[in-house]
Amino acid sequence: MNDGGGTRSWRTWGRRTFVICLALGFIGLGIGFVAFARLVEYQEPTTALAPADGVVALTGGSERVVDAVELLAEGRARRLLITGVNQQTSRHEMARLMPSFQRLFDCCIDLGRAALNTAGNADETRRWVEQNAIRSSLIVVTSNYHMPRALVELRSAMPTLELIPYPVVSDRLRNSDWRSDSHVARLLAIEYVKFLAALVRTKIMPPAKSSADMMTAAGAPAQHPDVAGVVSARR
Question: Model pTM?
Fold first, then answer.
């Protein structure tokens, strides 16, 4: 009978420990979400932006592309990659929406069509960086709520490159409070889960070294193959 009582005690202790750990896990996730939401809440684009070698805009909102093109026009960088462009969207259609920047579309803007998600954006950007010999810094343009996950993916793909965030804030997020707006709270919660998943995945499965990285490490000059899915604006 003593053995049976001891077994029941261990089972009770095990269940209580599991419940406590589960509760602590949920509390940790809740605290992390609040920190994430507050980080996003206070992210704003800066006017004191240091010049960089290039700019990348992750598609998902027209404001991102417009802001990135304006940064290029201001001389903040020498080339721009718009990654994740829809296969059906032509260069002419994009340029027509910004007629005052037609000259930039003819010389300095590349369209990447291969990426289907943020990890794909990072890989497409890495290949574009290699092709265009961008070695020092890169301005990253995406929405403020997407910026943390984008930086995780991009840093994993290009750990030696300085990434300069340029968060774009939509009118909805600028004028809403996630504490009282359920739509905004849900958007941030989904993005927080995706951010955690990207953080874990990039730590467990870092991307393989590119051919250029391996050749450079071996002492051979890096060759920059054409970027699959990137349409160069050079004539």
Answer: 0.77
